[in-house]
């Protein structure tokens, strides 16, 4: 077990099964159209790379953008900055699937969807590995969800706390003292 009092929430095996199941659903939905994956940096990198390797549907492009909420620590704030070098030509007329690590307040969903929506995709859906519905501040609908979890701050499998713990192979949380 990792140090620092981290407690296991989702094991490697559970992550593998969930990623396979999500890939099956996505394959079913995009079999005839193919899709463009847009990974939300940085937390979704490991999830995206595992998902990409499970997908059978044709992935026309892999793109990245960065979404960061102003503020620091473990609380996300309402305003989200999107930084991206995604070309409009990569999105226009394509079926686009955003891949993110955690659905929390929902502000990232709104910002990223607005940003990519302005580029004229044929369709736009949102996939998140984890969902913390108790924390939602805006009414948004995620299309694909791996796990619904309680309101813990989680790390591992790409997710950080102040840039640490991304390399842990499973998902952990800090129990409330
Ligand atoms: P929101 O839905 O609040 O706009 O933001 C979701 C983003 O906040 C996630 O993509 C992630 O970057 C960050 N976030 C929210 N909850 C957690 C958490 O428990 N752990 C980590 N590492 N990041 C989180
Ligand atoms: Mg994020």
CATH C-level category: Alpha Beta
What name does CATH use for the topology?
Rossmann fold
Can you give the helix content as a percent range?
10-25%
Structural class: alpha/beta
User: What is the H/E order?
Assistant: EHEHEEHEHEEEE
**What is the tally of beta strands?**
9
Could you characterize the architecture of this molecule?
The chain is of the alpha/beta class and about 180 residues long. The chain has helices at about 10-30, 45-55, 90, 105-115, and strands spanning about 5-10, 35-40, 60-70, 80-85, 95-105, 125-130, 145-150, 155, 170-175. Helix 1 (about 10-30) crosses helix 2 (about 45-55). The two termini are about 20 Å apart. About 30% of the residues are buried. The protein binds guanosine-5'-monophosphate and magnesium ion. Magnesium ion binds near residues 40, 43, 67, 101 and 108.
Topology readout:
Elements lengths: L6 E4 L1 H19 L4 E7 L3 H10 L4 E11 L10 E5 L3 H4 L3 E9 L3 H11 L5 E9 L12 E5 L5 E2 L15 E3 L4
Parallel strand pairs: 2-3, 2-5, 5-6, 6-7
Antiparallel strand pairs: 1-9, 3-4, 8-9
Helix pairs in contact: 1-2
The site of magnesium ion has 6 residues, from strand 5.
Task: Describe, in short, the structure shown.
With 177 residues, this protein is α/β, with parallel strands linked by helices. Helix content is 25%, strand content 31%. It is built from four helices and nine strands, in the order E-H-E-H-E-E-H-E-H-E-E-E-E.
């Amino acid at each position: 077990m990792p140090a620092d009092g981290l407690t296991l929430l989702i094991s490697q095996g559970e992550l593998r099964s969930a990623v396979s199941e999500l890939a099956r659903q996505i394959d079913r939905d995009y079999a005839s159209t193919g899709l463009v994956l847009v990974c939300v940096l940085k937390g979704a990198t490991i999830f995206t790379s595992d998902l990409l390797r499970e997908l059978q549907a044709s992935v026309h492009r892999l793109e990245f953008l960065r979404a960061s909420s102003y503020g620091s620590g473990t609380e996300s704030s309402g305003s989200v900055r999107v930084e991206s070098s995604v070309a409009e030509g990569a999105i226009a007329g394509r079926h686009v699937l955003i891949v993110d690590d955690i659905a929390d307040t929902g502000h990232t969903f709104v910002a990223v969807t607005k940003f990519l929506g302005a580029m004229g995709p044929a369709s736009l859906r949102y996939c998140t590995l984890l969902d913390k519905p108790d924390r939602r501040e805006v009414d948004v609908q995620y299309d694909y969800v791996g796990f619904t979890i309680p309101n813990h701050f989680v790390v591992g499998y790409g997710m950080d706390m102040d840039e640490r713990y991304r390399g842990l192979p499973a998902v952990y949380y800090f129990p409330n003292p």
